[in-house]
Design a protein that fits this description.
With 232 residues, the protein is α+β, with helices and mostly antiparallel strands. Helix content is 46%, strand content 22%.
Length: 232
C-alpha cells in the first residue's frame, strides 16, 4: 500500500482530517516550484477521487490538506494580478536611467560627471529592484472552486513547471473530478450536504477562512435542491 505522510511535525496549520482516508492507489503526482517566490506546491491524486496538496514556503512553513474531488468544479479559473504600481515605478526608473546616461555621456552641458554616474548607478539599481518586486508580487494562478458554494480550494501556479506538463495535469485533474462525480452517483441534495461537510472540515484545517466558509454555506442553503429537501 502506498503512503502519504500526513504528520503535523513541520506544519504551521492544523491538520484535522478525522476520516483518515487510506491510500490504496496513487494515480498521479505533480510538483511546481517558484524559486523567486520560494514556494513549492505538490499534488497527489489518489484512490481516483482524492487529491492531497502540500504547500511549502521558504519562510512560511508547510501547509497540507486533502480534498475529495467529488465536490470540486472541474472548470478552473485563472487569476492574473499584476503589481501595476511596482511596474510603473520600474518603468519610470528605467526612463530616468536612460536620461541620466544621456546627460552624463552625450550632453554638451557641464555637469559633475562623477555625481551623475553615482545617481545613474543608483537609479538603475532601483529600477532592477522594482522589476524584481513586480515579478515577486504579480500573481498568475489557477484555482478550482467547490461546486455549489464556490469556495476556492485548490490553487496552482499557471504554466509551471512548463506549459505542456501543466496543461496535461490540468486535463487529468479535471478528468478525475468528472469521474469522481459520476461514480459517486449522488442526488442533488446529497451532493450539497456532503460538500457542506467537506467545506466545514477544510475550514477547521484553515484551508479556507471562516468568511469564505460562511459565504459558501449561504449559497448552499439558497440552492433549490437544499430548500426542497428542507420542506420535505
Amino acid at each position: 500500500m502506498e503512503e502519504i505522510d500526513l504528520s503535523t511535525s513541520e506544519d504551521i496549520t492544523l491538520f484535522t482530517d478525522e476520516e483518515q482516508v487510506a491510500v490504496k492507489t496513487i494515480n498521479h503526482e505533480f510538483s511546481q516550484e517558484s524559486k523567486l517566490k520560494g514556494v513549492v506546491r505538490e499534488f497527489t491524486i489518489f484512490n481516483d477521487i482524492q487529491c492531497y496538496q502540500s504547500v511549502k514556503r521558504k519562510h512560511g512553513g508547510k501547509h497540507k490538506f486533502r480534498v475529495n474531488l467529488t465536490h470540486l468544479n472541474p472548470k478552473p479559473k485563472r487569476d492574473f494580478i499584476l503589481a501595476e504600481g511596482w511596474l510603473i515605478t520600474a518603468a519610470i526608473s528605467t526612463v530616468l536611467s536612460f536620461m541620466l546616461v544621456y546627460i552624463g555621456w552625450f550632453s554638451s552641458l557641464q555637469f559633475n560627471h562623477q555625481a551623475v554616474f553615482i545617481i545613474t548607478a543608483l537609479t538603475i539599481s532601483f529600477s532592477v529592484i522594482a522589476f524584481l518586486i513586480t515579478l515577486l508580487k504579480t500573481q498568475d494562478r489557477i484555482r478550482l472552486f467547490s461546486n455549489c458554494g464556490c469556495a476556492p480550494i485548490l490553487e496552482l501556479m499557471n504554466n509551471k513547471p512548463d506549459r505542456e506538463s501543466f496543461a496535461a495535469f490540468m486535463e487529468l485533474l479535471s478528468s478525475h473530478i468528472i469521474k469522481a462525480q459520476h461514480s459517486a452517483d449522488l442526488s442533488a441534495t446529497e451532493r450539497l450536504v456532503l460538500e457542506l461537510k467537506e467545506l466545514r472540515r477544510l475550514k477547521d484545517e484553515s484551508v479556507i477562512t471562516e468568511a469564505v466558509y460562511e459565504q459558501a454555506k449561504q449559497k448552499i442553503f439558497k440552492n433549490k435542491a437544499f430548500k426542497s429537501e428542507s420542506r420535505d
